[in-house]
Structures are given as structure tokens and as C-alpha cells.
Hints:
- By secondary structure, this protein is mainly alpha-helical.
- The protein is elongated and about 75 Å long.
- It contains 16 helices and 7 strands.
- Helix 1 (3-14) crosses helix 2.
- A hairpin with a 4-residue loop joins strand 4 (127-129) and strand 5 (134-136).
- 35% of the residues are buried.
- The protein has a 3-stranded antiparallel β-sheet with strand order 1-3-2.
- Helices cover 47% and strands 7% of the residues.
Amino acid sequence: MTVLEKVEEAIRALQKPRKGVSRQAIKAHLESKGISTARLAATLKRAVADGKLEQSGQSFKILKQSKGPPRINKKDAAMTDEDWFQLHGNKLIKAMTKDGKTAEKAFVKEAQVWAASGRPLGTGLSVDDCEYNLPFGSALEYACAFCGSFQIKTLLDLGFPAENLNDNPCSLSALGHAIERWHSKEIITLLHEKGGHLDNVGDIDDGNDPCPISSVGMAVRNRDLDQIKHVLALGADVNAPKHCPPLIYLIQKKHGLNDNKTYLNFRDKPILEFLLKQGASFEVAKESGYYRDDEVFPKAREILEH
């Protein structure tokens, strides 16, 4: 059992109708069963923030959606995977993209239906992003692209996988979307810890074929030095993938990819110098099929060949 599950068990054992249970009572109950309370304060704070517990002063109640997963009705159980995902995929997206406490409760309930269904959690969502024309294969990918930390954490807590299981061409993993949409370092770290691959966050369209991209490459495309430092600190390879290393996105006016990004001036000296100090190789970039010698910024070349 998780720490939160043990806390909820204690609250259910102590709670009186329409009343909460004090922090001290929860702590005493856990200690009486030989359970460590070292993480109690952090667990309570996180549970309240995530909408799993309700706090009034120093008392805590269990909200309805955290009392356990909903039952799967016979009609749902008899559905084929395709029909089930079509029905519940629409429900989940509708709930996850609305604002307000009521929408959050509806989202948690529907996410619990998915988690309790026994169906694969890393697939089943067939939605296209109209802005980038990217296909989404999982609910977690969609949450990282369009929703906030509450939705992402809820799905991860329910067991939705963070690794890239989407086999659609030109698609990003949950971690790839999280970096592209500037989610917090906490979310990026959590996705990595839950299985997100730093050196493969999906691929992007080069006009002909899918081009693989890494977490560093995505952060470089964002021109975000803090993001770059963070994914490198997590263990990302500064030269991955060799097919199109991160330097390509930084040193050329055009990098051969079909994303309408053309940089007229080189303005990223601090990022380039940092990447080189971290081991980024100009020789590796030259070996890429996307390298164009005549497109390299003169000022970038001075730094690269210094």
C-alpha cells in the first residue's frame, strides 16, 4: 500500500459522519500499527492539492472520488477494445480539458474507469492535434500537451505509463510533449522517473520521413537553457540521437525539418557554449544527414572551430 492509501485507511477507521479526522489522530492511528509517519505531512499536503482529501483547519476528509475505483458494468466489459476506447476516450478528453472542481472530479472518475478496466493504458486514444497535426496514442500524451500538472499526476498515480508506446509516425511521447509545452521541472522529472526515455521522446516531420528527437533536442528547439540543463542533469545524452543531434537545431539557419523554423540571426551563444562544455560534438553534427555546411551561422562556426 502507498502512504496515501494507509492514510485513507486510517481516516475511514476514525472518521465520524460529516466530520474530518485531525492530523494528530491520523498520526496516532498509523503509529499504533507500526507505520512510519515521516512522510505524513507531505502526503497530506499532496493529497489535498490533488483533490483526493479535503482539509478543514487541521482535519481531513476523504473526497468521494478517492474511495476506490468505480465498478465496470457488464456492457462496458463486453465491448471490444476499439469500441471501448472510442467511448471512454471521448469522455476522458472532455473531462480533462474543462476547468473547475466539478470537471476535475469527472476527470478523476473517468481516469479511474480506465485504470480499473484492465485495458492497455498506454494506447487507445486516437486524437489529432490540429495545430501540429500530431497523433496522440495515449491519454498521458494528451494531458502533457494540453493539460496541467493535476491531470498529469493523476494519470501517473493511476498507472498510466510514461514510456513512448505510440507507434504513430511523427508523434511525441508524454515527456516530449511536456518539454515542448514548458511543463515544470517537477513534471519532467516525474515523467522520467516513471519510464519516460530522455534520449527518445518521439519524432518530428522532416517533410519525407519521421526524424527522431531527444529531450535535449526538444529543449534546444525551445531555446531554453534551464530546460537543457535539467534534462542533462537527469542523464540525457547531449549528442543523441546521432541521426539528428541537438546542435543541428542551434547552429544552422535551416535544419531541413518541416516545421517552418528559419533563424536569420545567431543569438544563442550561451546555449552553444554550454552544450560544447557538456560534450556536444561538432563532428557528430557534421555526420548527420540534416547538416548543411552552407547554412551554418558564421558566428556559430567561429565558436565551433575555436
